[in-house]
Specification:
about 200 residues; alpha+beta; Immunoglobulin-like; 2 domains; 7 strands
Length: about 200
Amino acid sequence: MHPRLRSFSRLGYSELEALEVPSGFWPRVIHKQSQVAYNGKMLQLRRLFKLTIFSSVVVLCAAAHAQDADKRGRKYVPPPDTAHVSVAVIKDTNGKPVENAAVIFHMVGEEGKGNMELKTNEEGKAIIDVIPIGDTVTLQVIANGFQTYGQDYKINSDTKEIVVRLKRPARQYSTYDHPATSASTNSGQGSGSQSGQTPPPPKQ
């Protein structure tokens, strides 16, 4: 660089105006100052970009490490084995299947799981495959025209066959079908005793 240009490049714009600088030097001085400012800004942007990349890499590494530690801390627990439970609902009198009967499974000691209800098909069967082996269920069967059935069952194997025989409701006792005869008997005894009494003898 020209020695005079090097010395002029250190001066500000107002100081250059006070000097008698040849016209050929003005564009060079202004270009030099713009180039220096541009280079400074680019250097700052590069540093900021590098810092951003470094911060992102650090955050990603920390997240991956935390996820890996979380996986090592929790062990996978496989779901329990379930049983194939088949319920056949038949009539107690003739053994024919009962269709559209409500078969309800109440999970004993399993609060929060709720109940499971199925309907019997035309063969009188209801099948379920989600009850874990080792659980105890209360089986309830409800059908129109039959007594409600209820029984506890322990699911000990991978298959369970249950046959439910529904009975007709027992006839209720009614006083209209068995009229009381005690009143008529008592009234008959009273009238007989009254008619059988001997009148006292007349006074003389």
